[in-house]
Design brief:
Strand order of the largest sheet of chain A: 2-1-5-3-4
Oligomer: heterodimer
Number of strands of chain B: 12
Radius of gyration of chain B: 19 Å
CATH topology of the largest domain in chain B: Uridine Diphospho-n-acetylenolpyruvylglucosamine Reductase, domain 3
Mean pLDDT of chain B: 96
CATH architecture of the largest domain in chain B: 2-Layer Sandwich
CATH class of the largest domain in chain A: Alpha Beta
Number of strands of chain A: 5
CATH superfamily of the largest domain in chain A: Beta-grasp domain
Helix content of chain B: 25-40%
CATH class of the largest domain in chain B: Alpha Beta
Largest sheet of chain A: 5 strands, mixed
Largest interface: A-B, 31 and 29 residues
Distance between the termini of chain B: 50 Å
Shape of chain A: globular
Strand content of chain B: 15-25%
Low-confidence stretches of chain B: none
Distance between the termini of chain A: 44 Å
CATH architecture of the largest domain in chain A: Roll
Mean pLDDT of chain A: 97
Strand order of the largest sheet of chain B: 4-5-8-6-7
Largest sheet of chain B: 5 strands, antiparallel
Helix content of chain A: 25-40%
Order of helices and strands of chain A: EEHEEEHHHH
Radius of gyration of chain A: 15 Å
Structural class of chain B: alpha+beta
């Protein structure tokens, strides 16, 4: 079957099987920033924005995403023009091994799209499905707070 | 990839979805949020009929009831103003600890009550709110949620049945609610969860509904305990007595997560707290 998607503002068309998982399709099509972690919806490494909501792409049937709008980490910013969240993750030292970072940024992005000035509790709740096995959570929360400030000052 | 899945469709109407399920002869399953389906927990199925285009994701409140479409996401319940405040926040409390934000954006109300897990929080709250469930199929009907849980919902429903909506009557009079879920860590599955709905007439308990979850394969109403409290003046001694009885009479077994004795202790402590919490909110 064929599905049509808008990924990072580009129209795409993929041939898939009915049982294909969105995470596998995205990686197969070159979106390698979407990481495969647990594959069971526990770790958040594969998070993408699906119609504006942050979801684990390992738990989404690719067929179910037909006609959806998807944003992966590749669509958040570029090396030349990074998103304030990406800048803050670098500046706050919130990246250790880096495997969880795309998922963390996607979850934080979903939050900041909805709330311009989230509380610490709201930040922690928004990131509650993203595991950092280097356990660098303090710096990650700091980075989101820093991004909030950056966005306010823009 | 789910290699067994060879068919997928997403009809625009519930009636078309029912017809598709008929064609599948029990081998095709309803696809709601899909978090269990994608993990291969749907049993022996070879196709999915998705409800995503059937317009079942509403949350609406009328003067008399709250209706939640079966495709409403758990995160929608948390963010919807009417659902947040309904029954003094009972649905909000019971939805708050389900999965993570990333999964609450996928899990649907319908999926949560049909693909029910032992530790599920929300069904316990729905039980004490006397919820009703609309089912569309060859014989459309409205079921009491408690009747849907007499056996596993998948056994009660036929393979051609689709849950379209959960309806909850707005509580009236002086009432209070409480929901408590207990797990070893914030993210762990519940070892015991309890919901209480209480209606007061001055100091007397006019009506009370108590439900437990995570203790047996399905959540259940504690009718015997409710009877002990109805039409009685609520004093601490009575609450203690009811909590003791709950601990004594509820059948639980030891497993790798907790002993039978520990679970019985939890039942007593959590029920006492839940009744007091419900009374405080009344």
């Amino acid at each position: 079957m064929i599905i049509k998607l808008i990924i990072n503002n580009e129209e795409k068309e993929f041939t898939i099987k009915p049982g294909d998982i969105l995470l596998d399709v995205l990686r197969r099509e070159g979106y390698k920033g979407v990481k495969k972690g647990c594959g069971t919806g526990e770790c958040g490494a594969c998070a993408v924005l699906l119609n504006g909501r942050a979801v684990n792409s390992c738990l989404v049937l690719a067929a179910e995403a037909d006609n959806s709008r998807i944003v992966t980490i590749e669509g958040i910013g570029t090396t030349e023009k990074p998103d304030p969240l990406q800048e803050s993750f670098v500046e706050a030292g919130a990246v250790q091994c880096g495997y969880c970072t795309p998922g963390m940024i996607i979850s934080a992005k979903a939050l900041l799209n909805k709330k311009k000035d989230p509380t610490d509790t709201e930040i922690k709740k928004a990131l509650d499905g993203n595991y950092c096995r280097c356990t660098g959570y303090v710096k990650i929360i700091d980075a989101v707070r820093m991004a909030v400030k950056k966005m306010k000052n823009k | 990839m789910l290699s067994d899945i060879r068919y997928y469709s997403s009809p625009l109407r519930v009636s078309d979805a029912v017809n598709e399920l008929k064609k599948g002869k029990g081998k095709w399953a309803v696809f709601a949020g899909g978090t269990s389906a994608v993990l291969g927990r749907m049993g022996n199925v070879s196709g999915f009929i998705s409800l995503k285009n059937c317009g079942l994701d509403h949350i609406t409140q009328s003067r008399t009831e709250l209706s939640i479409g079966s495709m409403a996401r758990i995160q929608d319940i948390l963010e919807n103003k009417a659902a947040q405040k309904f029954a003094k926040g009972l649905l909000y409390k019971a939805s708050y600890r389900i999965g993570s934000t990333l999964n609450r954006n996928l899990i649907t109300l319908g999926g949560n009550i049909i693909q029910i897990y032992r530790w599920s929080d929300l069904p316990v709250a729905l039980l004490v709110l006397d919820s009703k469930v609309n089912v569309k199929g060859p014989a459309s009907r409205t079921l009491k949620f408690s009747d849907l849980l007499k056996k596993h919902p998948k056994t009660v429903l036929k393979y051609t049945d689709i849950v379209t909506e959960v309806r909850i009557k707005s509580p009236s009079g002086v009432f209070g609610t409480e929901f408590i879920t207990f797990s070893k860590t914030e993210f762990d599955y519940a070892l015991c969860n309890v919901a209480v709905f209480i209606q007061m007439n001055e100091k007397k308990c006019k009506d009370i509904r108590i439900a437990f979850g995570a203790l047996q394969p399905l959540p259940f109403r504690a009718y015997k305990l409710e009877k002990m409290m109805k039409n009685k003046v609520i004093i601490d001694e009575l609450i203690r007595e009811v909590a003791e009885e709950a601990s004594k009479s509820t059948e639980v077994s030891s497993d790798f997560r907790a002993s039978r004795e520990y679970k019985k202790h939890l039942i007593r402590v959590l029920l006492e707290r839940a009744i007091k919490g419900a009374m405080k909110s009344a």
